[in-house]
Amino acid sequence: MKNLARELLFPLLAVIAAFIIGGLIILAIGDNPFEVYRLLLSSAFGLYDALGNFTFDNWGYTLFYATPLIFTGLAVALAFKCGLLNIGAEGQLYVGAFAAAWVGITFARVPGLALVPLALLAAIVVGGVWGAIPGVLKARFGSHEVINTIMLNFVAVGLLSYLTQRHYKAVGDPIMQTVPIAGQAHIARFHALLAPVGINFPQRIPLNVAFLLALLACFIVWVFLWRTKWGYEIRAVGSNPAAAEYGGINVKRQIVLAMALSGALAGMVGINEVLGYRYRYYHDFSGGTASYGFTGIAVALLGRNHPVGIVLAAILFGALIRGGLFVDIFTENVSKDLVQVLQAIIILFVAMEALFRGRLGRFLPAWSKKGI
Amino acid sequence: MLRNIFNYTLIASTIRLSTPLILAALGGLYSERGGVINIALEGMMLAGAFTAAVIAFYTHNPWVGVLAAVGAGMLVAGVHGVATISYRADQVVSGTAINILFFGVPALLSGAMFESTGATPQLRRDWVLPDVAIFSAGRFPQLASVFNQKPLVYVAFILVAATSYVIYRTRFGLRLRAVGENPEAADTAGVSVVRMRYAGVLISGALAALGGAYLSIGQNSLFTRNMTAGRGFIALAALIFGKWNPVGAFLACLLFGFAEAISIRMQGTVNIPNQFIQLIPYVLTMVVLAGFIRRATPPKAIGVPYTKE
């Protein structure tokens, strides 16, 4: 129990510290931090709307935004476990989303029963291939994955912008988006799932089956990392590559494998975005709202690279994205970019655990300092 | 067609486009030679670019803007230093946090100050850095554009020589290299590892911010969101390609600047979609890293926090 408390204590301290610093920034740019945070949290978690009626909107959207973050959080965490920092989830999720849309557009005659799995597979495989490239470059040439994944983000955006504009856009459409996917490729929203049991979950909320897939992915990643030989080998490489090599583990293969799986998880964001939400590939969908790929780093770190922690952290950041939109509209000076600032500060504090254990440590209970 | 691409203007634009890379790469060199990975060059450049544009806007003076940018860069570098040197945070993670921070901070502040999160206001011509001709072209008028550049271009070139001297010929440089290669030995010899590493990281922030300032109030006349477009990372790749050596890094930056210059000039003149041409610098970075990294040996203690026994 104390162990669990310790796992929760430091992330919680990091979040509180980030909110305090964020509050000072809000104050400096001329808004009332308490007012901003109240707005942020009530529009993310509130169960009642302004008129006092029960509403699914806040939680529904929070979980909808949490869905891609669970995927990217898992992606970053899996690479982390192998000692790799994947900051290319942004590019991987774009190619995954485009691949899903491509299948949905190209095979419009295929029945849904085959088309949906095909689109899922496309997002996973193409995301995985995009993730494997920096893995191969690292394993074969030793070049750092941080630089290569960032470069591949730019390459992905460039290529997809070309493909969208030249080949898959409706003629005369001023928006950078592909034509819609076939209707039978859509996956169910919670509206359709909950209607049979008599719950009236509004159709406008785009929360869909991908959220359940994300939870399933958490379980699968947990089983893979902690209950299979390959997962064990990935973790061994992450904790000590030299020892792993000595112990007969093929380090290079595990690096490529970890990056491919990481990319595949990031690619699954496309399922939520394309098959469950917009029903087409919308260019720059992640950069425009939330940078799911970069937020995934914060999610993984805050969630301590553990699937359960990742779900909790993804819900927190999903709430920040949802609340940030309201803060953007209803405050004088604060824009939704506050969310990215909070994220970055949280990452810094999580990385500086020694800060809480060290000088601030005397304020903490003794059990939290064990095992430093 | 080839004559339209390869001419004197290409040389001039190579120099221009290399400059922010050179400044950032030299910055990275001070930090990494001292043993601290600086993946945050991108964020530090953005901090410098944004600060320079804002301060030049309010003071109508580009030089005050440049100075303020250097201050901002050092402040950001200070955060990286506190996190990684004093509190032994993972250097790559801390750097990534700083990069994310400066995707957000400029937008948040410019939204509050100018009611636009995408860009700062356009600066008047006399509020940005002037062109300075250092060589009267005389009989070769084509060369005039090559020797008529922003002052920070000359600063960058001078800093290459200065950095070579500082790193290899001064006591400071020797000590910096010592804490990056073998901090225990340096410590035993009475060198403060912490102080030297802070010095390296702070210089790094100052130079990267200069590179950013060059982008916003040299090459352009405003700050736009994420205007660095990966240059901090390309500079880092140039540093590795140049084997953590000032002249090597300089040459690598020229190569990347050349690639960018070519890609800009090819747009519209050759029958390849612009989206592909714009990718040249990014793809080249990956190719160069893959092709040459084996021969590059990083400072031995890079990435390892130092704990005094």
Describe the structure in your own words.
The complex is a heterodimer of chains A (372) and B (309). The two termini of chain A are 18 Å apart. Chain A has helices at 2-28, 33-45, 57-81, 89-106, 112-141, 145-168, 190-194, 209-227, 229-239, 241-246, 251-267, 269-278, 285-289, 292-302, 307-330, 338-351, 353-357. The model of chain A has no long low-confidence stretch (mean pLDDT 90). With 372 residues, chain A is mostly helical. The longest helix of chain A is centred in the middle third of the chain and has 30 residues, at 112-141. In chain A, helix 14 crosses helix 15. Chain B is an all-alpha fold. In chain B, 68% of the residues lie in helices and 1% in strands. Chain B has helices at 2-5, 8-33, 41-59, 62-86, 91-114, 151-169, 171-181, 183-188, 193-219, 231-241, 246-266, 274-277, 280-292, and strands at residues 132-133, 148-149. Chain B has a two-stranded antiparallel sheet with strand order 1-2. Classes of the chains: A mainly alpha (372), B mainly alpha (309). Chains A and B meet through helix 5, helix 6, helix 14, helix 16 and helix 17 of A and helix 5, helix 10 and helix 13 of B.
Strand order of the largest sheet of chain B: 1-2
Residue share in helices of chain B?
55-70%
Alpha plus pi helix count of chain A? 17
| N- and C-termini, Cα separation of chain B | 65 Å
What characterizes the major β-sheet of chain A? Answer: none
List unreliable stretches of 5+ residues of chain B.
Answer: none
Helical coverage of chain A, percent range: over 70%
